[in-house]
Write a structure and sequence with these properties.
Blueprint lengths: L9 H16 L5 E17 L2 E19 L2 E7 L3 H15 L26 H5 L2 H16 L5 E20 L4 E18 L3 E10 L7 H13 L1
Antiparallel strand pairs: 1-2, 1-4, 2-3, 4-5, 5-6
Helix pairs in contact: 1-2, 4-5
Length: 225
């Protein structure tokens, strides 16, 4: 786990750091490829028609694939900066004596025609937290107000994930991609004679594509059916 909170331009700094890391690794290997994955998450939880908790977190990891004297190695680290360099180097070099040669291990050259998909919702990321909390509370309210037999909700949550991936190699390839994933979920507990519960969830790449009212209604109906 790393920084709490984030700026949406942080991925630019992450990409530059990966390039510097590649420059430092270049003298040690015949060829290399680096992959950086960063996942930033905001999670909100509601209970009893109020905000119960919120969590902000960031995770990132760097993978190295490299070739030395026709021996391919792999290394992975959660460290950053100089610590990342040391960790990747030590792990890769420790593996080299035990790896068989592979004459066909190659990394791809630069390419500029990868298919594009619009999966990144910058507007949703910049939306006020109050807007997201209101949407979550509205979804919970839809469940609780549906029928008198509905007693409570559990695990009533809204998650916002921002994921970025950067790949570069010693042959000049560099590719980046970003996407957002939004998820709403809840468990409904209903009781007449017997207690029955139902859990469901929905996800979308854009915040405005989530329909909390429809989800809440479906959960309530299933719990009572």
């Amino acid at each position: 786990m790393r920084r709490i909170g984030h700026d949406h331009d942080d991925h630019l700094g992450d990409a530059m750091e990966l390039e510097r890391l590649g420059e430092q690794l270049a003298p040690w290997f015949d060829a290399y490829e680096l992959c950086l994955i960063v996942e930033r998450t905001r999670a909100y939880e509601a209970a009893d028609r109020d905000l119960y908790g919120r969590e902000l977190s960031e995770e990132e990891g760097i993978a190295l694939r490299a070739v030395k004297n026709e021996r391919p190695v792999f290394s992975y680290t959660f460290e950053k900066g100089e610590k990342a360099l040391i960790s990747l180097m030590e792990n890769a070099r420790a593996l080299l004596p035990f790896v068989e040669t592979d004459d066909y291990c190659r990394f791809p050259p630069p390419f500029d025609r990868y298919p594009a998909m619009d999966l990144y919702d910058e507007t949703g990321l910049k939306a006020a937290q109050e807007e997201k909390i209101t949407a979550l509370l509205s979804m919970e309210g839809t469940i609780l107000d549906f029928d008198r037999r509905i007693k409570k909700t559990r695990n009533c949550e809204l998650h916002e994930d921002e994921i970025s991936v950067t790949i570069l190699n010693s042959h000049g390839l560099k590719a980046e991609a970003r996407k957002t994933v939004y998820m709403m979920a809840a468990l409904c507990v209903a009781a007449d004679r017997d207690e029955v519960s139902w859990y469901d969830w929905v996800w979308a790449n854009r915040l405005d594509a989530l329909d909390g009212k429809a989800l809440g209604t479906r959960i309530a109906e299933k719990a009572l059916s």
